[in-house]
Each structure stands twice: as structure tokens, then as C-alpha cells.
Amino acid sequence: MALNILVVDDSPFFQKLLAEMINEHPRLQVVGFANNGQEAIEQVKSLKPDLVTMDYEMPLMDGVTAVRLIMEENPLPILMLSSMTFPDAKITIDALQAGAADFITKNFSAISNKSEAITQHLHKTLLAIGENILQSKNALSVSSEQSPPKRNDLSGVSVSGNTSNIDRLGKDSLFESSGKPKIVAIGASTGGPAALISMLKEIPASFLLPIVIVQHMPKNFTLAFSERLNRQCNIEVKQASDGDKLLPGRALLAPGGKQLIINKKDATRVSVIDSDGEVNYKPCIDISFASLSNTYGATTLAIVLTGMGNDGCKGAKLLKAQRATVWTQDKDSCVVYGMPMAVDQARLSNASLTLSNMSTYLSAL
């Protein structure tokens, strides 16, 4: 069965091109169009699509406002289309915080030429955010018939590959026995911006550990996102520069197009380096995690959040070999349960937690 998609764009030319690209995949089909945000809200109500592609700059109502209202009234996965400029990156971050599931960069020439690479990326992203969120909704509809858990409890949390009841799960079970963490490393991809905002804004300014964050994003987007996090969080958040010092209560976000590592020469600072052309992700979670396995080792707390693919799994394996602690985001709260699933299935996770529980336990460190 195909996923039904509503295309929202004020350009008939781009509507036609996007529809042709989307419809090339047998499991995707465009069922309608909207020329602005207001029409999008009305079409979502009448057509009931499975997901929406959304432009942001449109007459009558912009895409960010439309996303916010749709997510309040008829929530569903929304994919934003954005250009690579810094101002547009800031708008895209607004949309992600308003509830959009993910974004792809609106490369005008690539879309006009219907390049194979952009078409495949579009298909992959739509299928991931559509199918995974729909599966999560189905799972939640079943679980909603059961008694709701108490706030911040860990009922049903998977610990070291086993399901554990809150009565049998103590806080110490979430950590390896090798000692208290000295650094927190977080990796995220699809759905990561909203997850990171939700989790990090609960961390107090008095937090005693440094944090490094690897979020799959292009260059201008990581800068805009770091500024947004810094405004909304109690801790300091900045896009990492080469030589930045790791400090308590400071989070350093890996810049897009680069790699962030910590090396043995000076484990109190980060190195920001150019990326190998053969590496798929820039920044790459595996690369950052691997560098931590050689420096902080057992005293690393690595967290793998929502995202497509399996970036972070190889790095988590290297960290576990050093007896580090690894947490994953639980399936139901993920936009895409891909990266956490890879770590869970490899039995590398000490605990699969909700974002709320992660914040609670991080704050207690």
C-alpha cells in the first residue's frame, strides 16, 4: 500500500516536478496540492494524507505557521523543503521545532533536472518518516488501552537487551560498573533537532559534565541550530570550533561538513577536522564516538537518538569494548527508529529511554 502525500508549494512548476519525482516510487503517491499554508490546512482535513511536503515561503500563510497549526489540529509527518542559506536554515529550525519531522535542502537545479541522487534521497526520507511514524502511532494506539505509566517511570524500559520492570530497575542499572561518566556524547539524525531541544532544555545550568553533540545537518543549519539551542537551554551551547575547550555545562555541536573528534594529545579540547570524501555523514557519529573510545573510554556516556540508518552503531561498539555506557532513545518516541534500533539489536545499549527519562537521569549526574 502506498503512502498518500500532499505537496505544498506556491510554484506550480515545483509542484509538478515534485509530484513526478515522488510518484516514481511504487510505495509513494501524490494525492493533492496546496498553494499556501492555509490551503495546506484545509487539504489535510479533506484529503487526510499520510504525510506532507511543505515549502516555507508562500503567500497568505507561511510554511512554519502551517506546520504549527497542522500539528495542533491534525498531526502527521511533515517534510520541509529548504534552501542552504543561513536565514532559511533558521526558518527550517523553526519548522522542526513546530513539529516538522525532517527537512531536505531544496536544490533548484537538482530538482529541475530530477537528478537520481535527489530523487532517491527524497524517496528514502519520505518512506522513513512516513512508515515509521505510522507504525509508532499504531503501537501507541494499542498501548493507550493499557494503564498509563506514572510520570518519569521506566516501566517497559529495555535494559541491556532485557525488559525490566521499574520495581527491579535502579538508577545504577543504567550505567556500566566502570564508574561515573566524565563526558556525554549525543548522536542524532532525522527528528534529532526536536529531540535535542526537548532533552537539553531540562538540563540545569549547574550540569557538571561537558557534552558533545553530532547532529546530521549541513553547515549553515548546525550554526543556526546551535544558536537556537543556546537561547532555549540553561547550559551553554555553541557550534564547535577547532580547539574549543570541553567545560562543565557546555555543549559543543559538531559543525556541518566537518568531523568533531577528541584526541589523546589534549582530551580537554575538541578538534574540528575536514571530512574524508568517502564518509557518508559529515559530521559522523561513528567518528566522534570512536575518538572518545580512545580518550575518555569507560567514562563516556554515549546517547543515540532518533535517525535513519545505523550511524553510531560502530562507534558504540568501540565504546562498549572500553566499558562505556550507551543509551538509546526508545522506539515509540523516535521519529525514525533506525539508529537506536541498530544499537539495540547489536545489544550495545544499557538502556532504551524516553527523552524525559534521559533528561531526568542526566540532570542527576
UniProtKB/TrEMBL annotation:
Keyword set for this entry? Chemotaxis, Cytoplasm, Hydrolase, Phosphoprotein
Enumerate the SMART domains for this protein: REC
Q: Which GO terms describe its molecular function?
A: phosphorelay response regulator activity; protein-glutamate methylesterase activity; protein-glutamine glutaminase activity
Annotated region (Disordered), positions in chain: 140-162
Which Pfam family would be a valid example here?
Response_reg
Localization, UniProt: Cytoplasm
Residue stretches making up the CheB-type methylesterase domain: 176-365
Q: What is known of its domains?
A: Contains a C-terminal catalytic domain, and an N-terminal region which modulates catalytic activity.
* Protein's name in the database: Protein-glutamate methylesterase/protein-glutamine glutaminase
Recorded source organism is: Candidatus Endobugula sertula
In the UniProt record, the gene name given for this protein reads cheB
